[in-house]
Design brief:
By secondary structure, the chain is an alpha+beta fold. 46% of the residues lie in helices and 21% in strands. The protein has a 5-stranded antiparallel sheet, with no helix packed on it. A hairpin with a 2-residue loop joins β13 and β14. α6 runs antiparallel to α9 and α7 packs across α8. Pfam families: FliD_C, FliD_N. Its main location: secreted. InterPro entries: FliD (IPR040026), FliD_C (IPR010809), FliD_N (IPR003481).
Length: 468
Amino acid sequence: MATTTSTTSTASITSLGVGSGLDLDSILTSLEESKETSLLTPITNQETSVNAEISAYGTLTSALTELQTAAEALADSSLYESLTTSLSGSGVTAATTSEAEAGTYTLQVTQLAQAQSLSTDGVASKTTALGTGTLTLQVGTASAVSITLDSSNNTLEGIRTAINASGAGVTASIVNDGSDTPYRLVLTSDSTGTESAMTVTYTGTDSTDEASSLFGYDGSSGNMTQTVEALDAELTLNGISITSQSNTVEDAVQGVTLNLSATGSSQTLTISQDTDTIYDAISAFVTAYNSYVSSVDTLTAYDADADTAGELLGDSTTRRISTELSSDLYTAIGSGTFSYLSQLGISLEVDGTLQIDEDTLTSALTDNIDAVSEFFIGSDGTSGFIGQMTDDLDNYLDEDSGLIVARTDSLESKLEQLEERYAEKQALIDSEMARWTDEFTQLDTLISSLNSTSDYLTTQFDALNSSD
């Protein structure tokens, strides 16, 4: 009878609690949730906090990197040596190199350089053979280039193509003038100036062929007509006459390139310190610093009403960086004309940001650029304001040993430890849940068996009572 009861109860149990009638699944789920809340949730909360802190350091790093870039721009000595040019008239532009010096010049362009052009007489067809022979082109004193004309290339179109492929320094084109014999071959020197004038000779196998009467120019006359004369650029600079083979005139003033586009009346060329570029670089630094301050304010803020805090509130690394950078702003620099940012019109506001007084800074740049340069980058081996700032920023941002890398590495290590603890606690919970599931299964089976026995006995007693 016992064997029958056991078999019957086991067959009837299809899920936990079915045999006993108890909600054992819910009990197990509650136990598991309780374990997870007590063992896993604290670890998950810590992981969330550490990840948020790592992300916050990413934001801080980005702000400091922008500040570093702006500081390095101010540390470039060439910034304080850059010049700008202006002209009072038109037809000329100017550009400077590092060899230029500030100064003012009177300039007048009286003639532009131009390239020589030669034209043949017109022919009726651009595809008719003109003869066979050798066409020789020479530009200035360059080596002459000879082109053999034969049945493959001796039409006007073929000659044009052959010249353009020859590398002679000449460009050939066909012009249609609309006459009865409209097609002319026009040769133009690739370079301007009298030193790039062309010489053209033709030697034909038959002196009566048409090409013999079309080509030839010895520098002053020939079968071809000069349609554009080779000219040099001519200008005066502070009363001194200057000629140039090109309309790009280099080093008429040392370190200055003039680009001529038109003749005109006398005008003034002014070469001066490029204070606008320096001002913009200083302004970019101030903007980057203020952006950094704003980022730190957000990352370390505390909202009492909402009881929420920034990810880096109370963080010692962030506090150290802020303290050191603020100290850089107050520290006296050297013994030159300017020792403090405030003397340049850059003041530290109550909220920790920097503010530029445009008039004061512009005046300093205009009146004493050398002293401004000395303040920012130093002189005679001494470090300026930017030197200390960039040293600090390098210390924070160095990818191998920087302050921020050290801190984020520590956080990453902590995160790994939390992940290991989580895995250990999860394994413990899984083990306990397996044990409880086994115990509940046994309990379910036992209660089911007892219920079956009870039902059997009840049936037997009922049968006995009914027989009486």
